[in-house]
Amino acid sequence: MPVIRDIPLSLDYNDEVLRRQGLGGRSKVRPEIKKVITELLAEVEKGGLLEPAVAYERYPITAMDSDRMSLEGDRAIEGPLLPATFPEAKELIVLIATIGPRLEKRVTEYTKSGGALRGVVLDGIGTAAVDRLIPEALKLIAAEVASRGYEISSPVNPGMPGFPMTEQWNLLELAPVREIGVSLSSSGVLIPRKSTSMVIGIGPKMTRWTQAEVCGRCSLKESCPYKIVS
């Protein structure tokens, strides 16, 4: 039950932070917003608001059909997206990542005390931190499987077309989430909210997507303000 902690996240005043605020390039950002972003980035670092952690488990794939992937231990993941995306995978990794509850708690404090702008901006910084955490975690896993001559696929998330959001409950049963303090609300929302779940195929030659291609596969692609287009 691998758990990775202390993953360094470099969050400076970069395009990813601005994108997660729904903003364009630096030149389009009002000076007062720039000031708030800079101050909050400093607060995130000084206050230790990021506690990045990743929990994952690897399962040999025993069988797959058009809408189901069967795993060792009499487990399975439902939905046609996985068999269609990496039919040659030998193993599957179920991964949950989080930046912890501290930043979310600070967002709530700002909102309740009348600092709505700071709350919104800090929330966007938290989402950008999750965005940065995922590729760092994938690099570590890719290095691990490379020693066996394998590659990793791009991650696939519940909610993508062909991968029902209801599988979220299943994924949290398949990964050691208690080790990193992640749970699900009754409505299926990850707690802490700045967390994400995914599966990754492992095999000799896996499918990889650009971020624009990932956005193109997302069910929110027409309405998401943060999408990347090619």
Identify the notable features of this structure and list them briefly.
seven-stranded antiparallel β-sheet; NADH Oxidase; two-stranded antiparallel ribbon; alpha+beta; disordered C terminus; 37% helix; 230 residues; 7 helices
Describe what you observe in this structure.
This protein is an alpha+beta fold. The protein has one domain (3-217): NADH Oxidase, CATH 3.40.109.40. Helix content is 37%, strand content 20%. The protein contains seven helices and nine strands; from the N terminus they run βααβββαβααβαβββα. The chain has helices at 15-20, 31-46, 81-85, 102-112, 116-146, 167-174, 211-217, and strands at 3-5, 53-65, 68-71, 75-78, 91-98, 151-152, 183-184, 190-191, 195-203. The strands form two sheets. Strands 1, 2, 3, 4, 5, 6 and 9 form a seven-stranded antiparallel beta sheet that branches. β7 and β8 form a beta hairpin. α2 (31-46) crosses α5 (116-146) and α4 (102-112) packs antiparallel against α5 (116-146). Residues 225-230 have low confidence and may be disordered.
Strand and helix map with partners:
Layout: E1 3-5, H1 15-20, H2 31-46, E2 53-65, E3 68-71, E4 75-78, H3 81-85, E5 91-98, H4 102-112, H5 116-146, E6 151-152, H6 167-174, E7 183-184, E8 190-191, E9 195-203, H7 211-217
Antiparallel strand pairs: 1-2, 2-3, 2-5, 3-4, 5-9, 6-9, 7-8
Helix pairs in contact: 2-5, 4-5
